[in-house]
């Protein structure tokens, strides 16, 4: 079945440092999305990005579909960026969504 | 703006007892409603997507049995039975199926086995 691998599994930064999170997936037929989970549990969508590059604030997502990879870049990290970041892909012709195992980010003051 | 309202937000579930969860859609622009589980290791897994009132599905996974029902255009329910390990159930919504659409999550219902 579809597989989604994320790296690193965890990351610790000092405030102000940049972060690069990676997502690799097993199929080119993807509709990729990045999510952020607050430490308290709430999940929010960061990007719907099936291909190309998208920016919002300090976040940049780049998906290269034919290479089966996506990245999430966080610039000038802040303590409020701490939490878990998930990428997820859809399975073609279904409503099934497969999530990666997540990258747990901790930003220290 | 809150698109989904889940209840209960958490529940202590005696081993062997079933629990019923409810999700209310606040915006009809996102009619595709789904359930996801997140286990104690934080792994997220899709369970069901139900679009139309009357749709029902069942599924058995390690640690729990599920029955999902789309009750109305705005209400989705989930019965969780035979749960052996705690988990959090999230309701989601999106427009026109997942293809080409952002997925929005509810606040989650955290179930703790006692």
Quaternary state, please? heterodimer
Global structural class of chain B = mainly beta
The helical percent of chain B reads under 10%
Class by alpha and beta content of chain A:
mainly beta
Order of helices and strands of chain A: EEEEEEEEEEE
Q: Span from first to last CA of chain B?
A: 34 Å
Instruction: Describe the largest sheet of chain B.
Output: 6 strands, mixed
- N-to-C SSE series of chain B? EEEEEEEEEEE
Strand tally of chain A, please? 11
Low-pLDDT regions of chain B:
none
Number of strands of chain B: 11
What is the gyration radius of chain A calculated from CA atoms? 13 Å
Helix content bin of chain A = under 10%
- Please state the overall shape of chain A, judged from the principal axes of the Cα atoms: globular
Low-confidence regions of chain A: none
Residue-averaged pLDDT of chain A: 92
Rg over CA atoms of chain B: 13 Å
How much of the sequence lies in strands of chain B comes to over 45%
- Quote the average pLDDT of chain B: 93
Topology of this protein?
The complex is a heterodimer of chains A (109) and B (114).
Chain A: E1 4-7, E2 10-14, E3 19-25, E4 33-37, E5 43-48, E6 52-56, E7 59-64, E8 69-74, E9 83-90, E10 97-99, E11 103-108
Chain B: E1 4-7, E2 10-13, E3 19-25, E4 32-38, E5 44-50, E6 56-61, E7 64-70, E8 75-81, E9 87-94, E10 104-105, E11 109-113
Parallel strand pairs in B: 2-11
Antiparallel strand pairs in B: 1-3, 3-8, 4-5, 4-9, 6-7, 7-8, 9-10, 9-11
Describe the structure.
The complex is a heterodimer of chains A (109) and B (114). By secondary structure, chain A is mostly beta strands. Chain A is built from no helices and eleven strands. In chain A, strands 2, 4, 5, 9, 10 and 11 form a six-stranded mixed sheet that branches. Chain A has a five-stranded antiparallel sheet with strand order 1-3-8-7-6, with no helix packed on it. In chain A, strand 9 (83-90) and strand 10 form a beta hairpin. By secondary structure, chain B is an all-beta fold. Chain B contains no helices and eleven strands. In chain B, the strands form two sheets. In chain B, strands 2, 4, 5, 9, 10 and 11 form a six-stranded mixed sheet that branches. In chain B, strands 1-3-8-7-6 form a five-stranded antiparallel sheet, with no helix packed on it. In chain B, a hairpin with a 2-residue loop joins strand 6 and strand 7 (64-70). Chain B starts with a strand and ends with a strand. The model of chain B has no long low-confidence stretch (mean pLDDT 93). The chains are: A mainly beta (109), B mainly beta (114). The A-B interface holds A 31, 33, 35, 37, 41-45, 48, 84, 86, 88, 90, 95-99, 101-102 and B 32, 34, 36, 42-46, 49, 88, 90, 97-105, 107-108, 110.
């Amino acid at each position: 079945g579809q597989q989604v691998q994320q790296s690193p599994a965890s990351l610790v930064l000092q405030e102000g440092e940049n972060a690069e999170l990676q997502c690799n997936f097993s199929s080119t037929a993807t509709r990729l999305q990045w999510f952020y989970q607050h430490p308290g549990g709430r999940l929010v969508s960061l990007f719907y990005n099936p291909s190309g590059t998208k920016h919002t604030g300090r976040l940049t997502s780049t998906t290269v579909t034919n290479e089966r990879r996506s990245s999430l870049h966080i610039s000038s990290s802040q303590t409020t960026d701490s939490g878990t970041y998930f990428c997820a892909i859809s399975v073609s012709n279904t409503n099934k969504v497969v999530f990666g195992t997540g990258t747990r980010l901790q930003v220290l003051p | 703006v809150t698109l989904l309202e889940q209840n209960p937000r958490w529940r202590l579930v005696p081993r062997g007892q079933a629990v019923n969860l409810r999700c209310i859609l606040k915006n009809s622009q996102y009619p595709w409603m789904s359930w996801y589980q997140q286990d104690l290791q934080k792994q997220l897994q899709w369970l069901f997507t139900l679009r139309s009132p009357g749709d029902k599905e069942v599924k058995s996974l390690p640690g729990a049995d599920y029955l999902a029902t789309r009750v109305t255009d705005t209400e989705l329910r989930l019965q969780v039975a035979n749960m052996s390990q705690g988990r959090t159930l999230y309701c989601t919504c999106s427009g026109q199926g997942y293809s080409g659409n952002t997925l929005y999550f509810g606040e989650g219902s955290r179930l703790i086995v006692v």
